[in-house]
Amino acid sequence: MDQTLWRTEEPDSRRERVTRLGRRAFIVGVAASASGVVVTLLRGSLLIQPQPVDAKDAPAEVTIVDFGPDGRKRGKIVVSHIARSDAEWRSQLSEISFEVARRAGTERAYTGDTWDNHEKGLYRCICCDTALFSSATKFESGTGWPSFWEPIARENVVETHDPSLGMDRIAVSCRRCDAHLGHVFDDGPRPTGLRYCMNSAAMKFVRLA
Questions:
Q1: Would strands 157-162 and 169-174 be described as parallel, antiparallel, or unpaired?
Q2: Is the CA virtual torsion 57, 94, 209, 193 positive or negative?
């Protein structure tokens, strides 16, 4: 039946149908090729969006909220801003942590050590040990990155506009050492409605009893 219908179509109708099929095949082919390129790039690296972290305008001292080894809040303290050379950071950090924290890279989803961590504890900066997030505000975002609905103290993080990759995002960094942590979005749960989407490689988890 299909063959008979095809043969009885007018010439213009046949040309239109062939044109539509050709366009569809072209679009599908381009999409498949693009997807293949993206997958290949991601497989070849754990990182997306590496770029230098700019701390040239950082103050000599900053105020943060201190938390003890037991996770208890001690209060605000004034500490020196930490600035080191790339060589010094490289000697301290693993390769992935250096690229994320000092080059604003993004680890691939589901590859970090703490995205699925459900233990009680604090998440501290991998570079300077500043307390950043608590397990009490961690939630399952389904993204493959550790996510929190608020930082442990607003004073301990800095939020800046990030227009990279053609997107309008808010980047989050450590106030004391400018380490890149991730980004914050407005699609999180109550009570804040925020989702602090962080990189495991930029933080170290300290378990609490």
A1: antiparallel
A2: positive
Q: If DSSP codes are grouped into helix, strand and coil, which group holds residue 6?
A: helix
**Quick one: pLDDT at residue 178?**
96
Q: How far apart are CA 178 and CA 81, in angstroms?
A: 9
pLDDT, tens digit, 9 for 90 and up, residues 58-110: 689 999 999 999 999 999 999 999 999 999 999 999 999 999 999 999 999 99
pLDDT, tens digit, 9 for 90 and up, residues 144-194: 999 999 999 999 999 999 998 888 999 999 999 999 999 999 999 999 999
Catalytic site residue from 127, 128, 177, 197 = 197
Question: Using CA atoms, how far apart are residues 94 and 46, in angstroms rounded to an integer?
Answer: 13
177 is known as an active-site residue? no
Instruction: Name the architecture of domain 51-207.
Output: Beta Complex (2.170)
- Asked if 178 contacts 58 with a C-beta cutoff of 8 angstroms, the reply is yes
Residue boundaries of the structural domains of the chain: 2-44, 51-207
Judge if pTM exceeds 0.90: no
The one-letter amino acid at 123: Y
Please tell me the distance from the alpha carbon of residue 152 to that of residue 135, in angstroms, as a whole number: 9
